[in-house]
Amino acid sequence: MAVVAVWKCDRDGAMFDNKKDAEEHDKMLELAANITTLIERSVEGIDEQVSEEIGLLLAKRRDALAKACKGKPEVLLEDEDHGEDPSAETVTPFAANQ
């Protein structure tokens, strides 16, 4: 029997086959949570589910958002499948490792 090391993110239960990807995913989720809190504090009456979705979207697209803030707003409208979320490809379902 082979032993397979996996890293599990406490925040959402996502599993990764290497520590670096797991830590990057965790940082993205922490950023999303902080953005969500900021939105809920700043926008009166916003639905919690909506604020969480916005927070997660902005955290996943943080690189494009940073470029947009530096003078390239058009990058926000580019297709998000061009590698904006590196953790999406590294999430490993636990069953796949067995």
Automatic annotation (TrEMBL):
Residues 75-98 are annotated as: Disordered. Residues 76-87 have a biased composition (Acidic residues). It comes from the Bacteria. It holds the Pfam family YebG. This is YebG family protein.
